[in-house]
Design a protein that fits this description.
The complex is a heterodimer of chains A (196) and B (194). Chain A is built from 3 helices and 7 strands; from the N terminus they run ββαβααββββ. The radius of gyration of chain A is 17 Å and the shape is globular. The mean pLDDT of chain A is 96. In chain B, helix 1 packs parallel to helix 3. The longest helix of chain B has 22 residues. Classes of the chains: A alpha+beta (196), B alpha+beta (194). The interface between A and B is medium-sized, with 22 and 21 residues. Strand 1 of chain A pairs antiparallel with strand 1 of chain B.
């Protein structure tokens, strides 16, 4: 059962960070769904079927996030995902988001011709209301692109309550502002194995 | 622009269920937050006109971004609020200069009308400091269903020489209001109070 309590979106546009303003700002977006955790308060052995139920929500969130960023799916270059489980749930409940969350973003971006071979980086924890999650971000097609290693911090004020779970998706438009520590460049990506 | 904006954060918080009850239509609150350089930091500046002008600019800029994020027409906005967090090399009066003299008029243009005062909050802070932006009905301050707050917070701001400026706009009151008082369908909207 999917019982959606809140949808929280956040779009951050970074115009400069010391130094000269870059030619184009970096945009980092996050979307969080606050759901009732159907497994809260007890041990449930067979939780995996919930992944299938979460798939339509994943697609809805991925599309809404692309819309909130407002630049089109072709311009998305980084992604990440995460979950915060309320106190009456267990960490494993957050792991249910790996498949529906990750593949939803890939489906939306691939449909726009934007290849997504790289694994979607993630993090999860059990937390109190207003707990903060640093969602890791990497390049969508090659995990080793150094300019795209990044983080988006998300707080959903008041969530998760003890019987809730917060499911998060994050997308960004490109490299860190003034990225200059070398490594694999996005122009040099081979795009076969998801790593380089 | 007069304001030197390092970053802009826009958030929308949509509530669909509260305490097991369906909220239909969902309540939606937006907050637009600018992180700006504080031109009066590091020293005492007697005349704060430069900050007042920045406030005027940001009232419209941030108000319009809230309206866009909510996807509504300006006349559909129901409540608003404003707040500022001053980095440690500034003074609390800098927040007052941005918020109070000139920010309101262009914000009222952005939300259409706005007879009521714009409730506000201010504080000194550092990276990641949160501020609760108070919310009140935009045309009648006594509408009890619309007394609320939305939290504004930017993980890496304000730095010492920066100011975080937040403007919040909603298309609704609290999710399940039931403490009585003046209702939004009863207001006259003339004196800004009732």
């Amino acid at each position: 059962m999917i019982e959606l309590r809140r949808v929280f979106t956040q779009v951050e546009t970074i115009f400069h960070e010391f130094g000269p303003p870059p030619a184009k700002p970096q945009v980092k977006g996050a979307i969080a769904a606050v759901l009732t955790n159907p497994f809260a308060g007890r041990y449930v052995s067979d939780i995996a079927p919930w992944m299938e139920e979460l798939k339509p929500l994943g697609l809805t969130l991925a599309n809404r996030l692309v819309d909130a960023i407002g630049l089109g799916p072709q311009l998305i270059e980084g992604y990440g995902k995460g979950a915060i489980v309320g106190a009456a749930g267990e960490l494993e409940h957050g792991a249910l988001w790996h498949v529906p969350g990750g593949y939803a973003m890939r489906e939306v971006l691939e449909a726009a011709g934007n290849p997504t071979n790289a694994i979607v980086p993630s993090c999860k924890k059990v937390g109190a209301p207003s707990a903060m999650l640093d969602v890791p971000v990497t390049h969508i097609n090659a995990s080793y692109v150094r300019s795209h290693f990044d983080t988006v911090e998300v707080v959903v004020p008041g969530a998760p309550a003890r019987d809730e779970i917060v499911l998060l998706l994050v997308m960004t438009t490109g490299e860190r502002i003034h990225a200059r520590v070398g490594g694999l460049k996005k122009e040099d990506v081979l795009g076969k194995d998801g790593l380089r | 622009m007069k304001a030197e904006i390092r970053k802009l954060v826009v958030q929308v918080d949509e509530t669909r269920r509260e305490m097991g009850q369906v909220v239909d239509p969902p309540t939606r609150r937006a907050v637009a937050i600018a992180v700006i350089a504080n031109p009066c930091a590091h020293r005492f500046v007697a005349d704060l006109a430069v900050l007042m002008d920045i406030g005027e600019e940001l009232g419209g800029y941030l108000g319009e971004r809230c309206i866009a994020a909510l996807g509504i027409r300006p006349g559909e906005a129901e409540s608003y609020g404003k707040a500022a967090i001053v980095g440690e090399e500034g003074e609390i009066e800098h927040a007052a200069a941005i918020l109070h003299p000139k920010l309101g008029a262009p914000l009222r243009l952005a939300v259409e009308k706005g007879a009521a005062l714009v409730p506000s909050a201010k504080k000194m802070g550092t990276l990641g400091t949160a501020i609760d932006v108070p919310l009140g009905h935009k045309d009648a301050a006594f509408v009890r269903s619309h007394f609320d707050a939305i939290e504004a917070r930017v993980s890496d701001a304000p730095r010492a020489g920066e100011i975080v400026v937040a403007v919040a706009v909603t298309d609704s009151g609290r999710p399940l209001p039931r403490v009585g008082g003046l209702m939004s369908n009863e207001i006259k909207g003339v004196d800004g109070l009732r």
